[in-house]
Write a structure and sequence with these properties.
With about 475 residues, the protein is α/β, with parallel strands linked by helices. The protein folds into 4 domains: about 160 residues, Methylthiotransferase, N-terminal domain (Rossmann fold, 3-Layer(aba) Sandwich); about 110 residues, Transcription Regulator spoIIAA; about 120 residues, Transcription Regulator spoIIAA (2-Layer Sandwich), CATH 3.30.750; about 55 residues, OB fold (Dihydrolipoamide Acetyltransferase, E2P) (Beta Barrel). Helices cover about 35% and strands about 20% of the residues. Helix 8 runs parallel beside helix 9 and helix 12 packs parallel to helix 13. The longest helix has 24 residues. It binds 5'-deoxyadenosine and iron/sulfur cluster. The site of iron/sulfur cluster (SF4) has 10 residues, from helix 6. Iron/sulfur cluster binds next to helix 6.
Length: about 475
């Protein structure tokens, strides 16, 4: 496997210098200039936005959620499904009026959507109020691009197609003080036939273990209690390192960091989820008993057409092995309904997998053709109505399973992480079980940020209810 390119530390230092020069340019007025960062899509994008905020803070910006008050707007986009793109184009279109009122406003778009040539072209031609467009590979030089906009350059499109690199040392402004994302790798090599990710995020590349461990150590010192290791395919972590290591070894090292905290990780690919991983999860006390293991479809012909490189039986076999080691494992998965050519009978096979595994929760999607992926070229005779009908059957079955699984918690006392105030006013607080199930509970706000025993007194298909024990 090819070695990963790393951005030299001096390059990042240069970016930080440009942050200071930008601050000198924007801080001439009486008020602190404000930035609005809007994020679509997955946790990887959330993590990227935390670095964009880190850079913006170094440029002297404060933050706002009000477009009218912003000096700079950054929209971090997603390309995984058509719907995500339509929302971005709709919202960016509406910004034309904001820019008319505030001509000095800088509008920037980044992330996966803009890395697709057709989307970039549409922005170039029809969204002339957008000043800066840059793909995931260029994030590390965001300060240079903003500085350029403020000094000499006009509209900037930074969309070099690249296998990708790793940049360390970018400042981070985190959104939460209890839960944190830590990217351990970027990109994906799997090329599932429906998926745009490998085209826009480049090849798999891993951060060095010492950089990851340093980051987690600092988070734990800062009081973070719930740390999620992120990557498109975490189980292939480390193959590109100078000294290759596997994901299980990394988990063990993170688990050895002193402190009271939980470790989660996502996403895992079934073909790379091994017995060794399951054993590591079982013996590492800080690793939460939860696995997100997307299976996408329950039929072998469909799995093959999806280029998933595992069969239904291999998947089920792995789940059995995991349940044997960790009986109370919480399982979640992603499913695509209506992949081109999926027959009614093949869809039934997906339902059978749900019945056998009994997932705690699912993320379900209707197939969305992505330009440039092989699946977008396939014949797709199934009507939208039929796909919706399948989708609704899937939801109904999962709702019933989730409700039963949640009901089984009633009467138990579970050590949960209290993570905030409840938006539902009948309850004071929210908490998460180790398996990441949502609990709404009564109790005093002083418990926020602590692991506390919670007595579960009720449940529905979405969440559990309880009280501090
Ligand atoms: N259409 C529908 N769902 C998709 N996903 C990825 N690409 C597509 C697509 N083209 C889903 C998969 C993946 C999750 C993140 O998004 O289920 O696991
Ligand atoms: Fe997409 Fe498959 Fe990679 Fe996941 S593993 S990001 S679904 S190509």
């Amino acid at each position: 496997m090819e070695r990963t390119t790393r951005i030299a530390p001096e390059e990042i230092e240069h970016q930080l210098e440009l942050c200071q020069r930008t601050a000198a340019l924007t801080s001439s007025g009486p008020e602190q200039p404000l930035a609005f960062v809007d994020t679509y899509g997955c946790q990887q994008n959330e993590a990227d936005s935390e670095r964009i905020r880190g850079y913006l803070a170094a440029m002297g910006f404060g933050f706002t959620d009000d477009e009218e008050k912003a000096r700079i707007i950054v929209i971090n986009t997603c390309a995984i499904r058509e719907h995500a793109e339509q929302r971005v184009f709709g919202n960016v279109g509406a910004l034309v009026h904001v820019k008319r009122r505030h001509p000095e406003l800088l509008i920037c778009l980044c992330g996966c959507m803009v890395q697709q040539p057709h989307a970039a072209q549409k922005l170039r031609e029809s969204y002339r109020h957008v000043d800066l467009v840059f793909g995931p590979h260029a994030l590390w030089k965001f300060p240079e691009m903003v500085y350029g906009l403020l000094t000499q350059r006009g509209r900037t499109f930074e969309l070099t197609d690249s296998p990708g690199s790793i940049a360390e040392g970018i400042p981070v402004v985190r959104q939460d003080s209890i839960k944190a994302w830590v990217s351990i790798m970027y990109g994906c090599n799997n090329f599932c036939s429906y998926c745009i990710v490998p085209y826009v995020r480049g090849r798999e590349r891993s951060r060095k273990p010492e950089d990851i461990l340093d980051e987690v150590r600092r988070l734990v010192e800062d009081g973070y209690k719930d740390i999620t290791l992120l990557g498109q395919n975490v189980n292939s972590y480390g193959k590109d390192l100078e000294e290759p290591m596997d994901f299980s070894a990394l988990l063990e090292q993170v688990n050895a960091i002193p402190g009271d905290f939980l470790i989660r990780f996502m996403t895992s690919h079934p073909k790379d989820a091994t017995q060794r991983l399951f054993e590591t999860m079982a013996h590492c006390s800080k690793v939460a008993p939860v696995l997100h293991l997307p299976f996408q479809a329950g039929n072998d012909r469909v799995l093959k057409a999806m280029n998933r490189r595992h069969t239904r039986d291999e998947y089920l076999q792995k789940i059995r092995a995991l349940k044997a080691l960790i009986p109370d494992i919480v399982l979640t998965s992603d499913i695509i309904v209506g992949f081109p050519g999926e027959t009614a009978g093949e869809f039934e096979d997906t339902l059978r997998v749900l019945e056998e595994v009994r997932f705690d929760a699912l993320f379900t999607f209707i197939f969305s053709p992505r330009r440039g992926t092989p699946a977008a070229e396939l014949d797709d005779p199934t009507t939208r109505e039929e796909k919706l009908a399948r989708f609704n059957r899937l939801l109904a079955l999962q709702d019933a399973i989730s409700e039963e699984k949640h009901a089984a918690y009633i009467g138990r006392t579970v050590r949960c992480l209290v993570d905030g105030r409840s938006d539902d006013t009948r309850w004071d607080l929210t908490a998460r079980t180790p398996g990441n199930r949502l609990v709404r509970l009564t109790g005093d706000a002083s418990a926020i940020g602590q692991f506390r025993d919670v007595k579960i007194t009720g449940a529905n298909k979405w969440s559990l209810f309880g009280e501090l024990a």
